[in-house]
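Repro case for the chain-ordering regression, as requested:
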Amino acid sequence: MRWLFASLLLALLGAVQAISYTGGRLLVVLEEQSEREKYTAFFGDLESRGFHLTVESPKSESLSLFKHGARAYDHLLLLPAKSKGLGPALTANLLLDFMRSEGNILLALSSDHATPTAVQSLLLEVDIQIPSDKGALVVDHFNYDEKSAADKHDVLLLPFPQGLKTGVKNYFAGEGVIAVPKAVGQVLGNDSPLLAPVLRAPSTAYSYNPKDEADIVEEPFAVGGQLNLVSSLQAHNSARLTVLGSAEILQNAWFAEKATIKGKAVTTANRDFAAKVSEWTFKETGVLKVGKLVHYPDEGVSKKLNSSLAIPENNPKIYRIKSDVNFQVEVSEYSLTHLTPYKPAFGDHVQLEFSMLSPFQRLNLAPISQTANSTIFGVSFKTPDQHGIFNFRINYQRPFLTNVDEKRQVTVRHFAHDEWPRSWQISGAWVWIGGIWVTVAGWVAFVALWLWSKPAEGSLKKTQ
Amino acid sequence: MRLLHSFTSSLLLAGAWTINAASSWSFEDATLTVQGKGAGVGAGAKEKLNPASSLPKSVTLGATDSLKLLLTTTDGKKAKRPHQAFLTLTDPTTGLEESFVLNVKESGKGKVDLTHKDLPVQFLTTSKPVPASIVIGSFGSSAPYKSKVFDLNIARDANVPLAIPEPPTRYAAEKEIHHIFRTDPKSPPKIITIVFAAGVIAALPVLLGVWATLGANVSHLSKALGNAPISHALFFGSVLAMEGIFFLYYTSWNLFQTLPAASVVGTVAFLSGSRALSEVQERRLAGQR
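-- result from build under test --
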């Protein structure tokens, strides 16, 4: 009965959240209500995708990220503010707490305004560095808009980002050019695997401060591909933070603006890019869900995984060493409106670890079948010749995808005393077995002789 | 040097009339010097760089050498100071880029020094020559300049160990691990086993044969059976049955099947044995043994 309610509840939840995988309550923090006009197209897009927008000023008394200790919003969009601080409701600690409880933040910076201290400390906390001086922006003398920034070269026109590297899915691909006006460049810390660049500056770009008196750049903040215009962080709990170097990317003025690059007239595709970035940040894309994990001893019969939640996993609790095991797992990816079968990027694999403290087997899983909204990955292997408590573990952490860490514990036991091969099956033992039975036969013959032998004539005479 | 200076100033004068618009950035009088440590000024190899083409052969930078690039940046034909003047190295395999800012004076004269210390470790470990380009650009409408000017071959002293930092953690598919099983216990070749097993089994006929030559016989069987038929039959039968129980225990029975059967057979052997052995004693006392 319980599973029926659970599945009913799930179905209901699915119907309510036809939008982001984690919810549709979006808080937009905007200082000047008049600025709202600039973002109407972006806000309209968000609303049409099912988000419920609440626009608040950081100065508002009622503004709070939490209510009764729980998140009051699922997502947060922080637009640049004129004032230096963001007020008591949006301190760096509260923003981090918001992420700790799995809230997602889309943070837009602007070189026109000083970055608020709360945002600065938040970025410092996650190892994203931005120029410390107000007004520093990214220029590129090679890829600029000749129409709006003919002299200042601070409106960059860039193609959509290529994939980060092979084996990483690209959620930000598209057609056309993105206009990045007056961006604040970011440099990502090298140590953290949680950080990933979304849009890199071209190799000839650099960050400088126009207020600087010098008419040559001497010590640029960062140069070329090390400079990011849009960067992302996904925490261990899969909360997402995206830093947009330029809030103007989201503004109506650049959504489909005519621009010129190298003498060629183009129309900016910012609307598409803004949608891609917000979809990823607000967990409409790149969300993985693991269904059932099924393992069973391989007895020559392949069982089909039934993905219905009604049937429990029913996995065995114990395996013998050196026995064949089949393993299957169901993985879905949430894509905008529904769960789809997950397909790893080229060169990437979902991996199974069979581990006791450290993995004894780490195997690439192959897709073996597909349901309407999940891929079933499977592998078969032999349990190692080591007894103990083992885990079937799927630890799948990849850039831009929510983290998956699932495990099922099993006991791996020794051979039982009657599972070893019998002694006659071991050819080396034949000599010993022969010895035993020769002894037995000799003993029986000896008993018979002792009982019934008549003394020999000759020997009797001798003793007499 | 004076000559060069006067040359540029004359260029400056000559270029003064050109209109700024639609001009493009470039450089001239570029010299590249690689100088070993301790060598005198001007002792190193000198190369002239051409903005239109790259040097045909690569420039080698040793561990103790320092590379010096001198050039004059020009806008159109006129020497001018740009906002951006970089020497950019690009790793041909990874695409990693590192830019070095040229220190350009008001007159457009720029210079940059480069030693192994300035290079990131990725460049020091690469085996391929690293393309080096010059980037010159500035605000306004002048076309920026970027072109590969030479290949830098970074020679490293193999005897000096390099502190390569641990690569940072990145989430990606890890290497597969296949458990290496301990090897199964092995038996010697079957032919050897068979020869020795045959030897062991042959010991039985040998034993019986030796007993026969010593005069062993079962001639008293009829007499024994005549005197105490039940006890003799039961005693010998129970000895055989005990061996049978051992055989069954070896092949299929467990201890709980074996023990009751063995105790029954043992009791029978004890009771019938005492009678049978009394009969044997009688024969001995009768002098028949």
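Ordering looks correct now. Residues 11-18, 460-464 of chain A have pLDDT under 50 and may be disordered.
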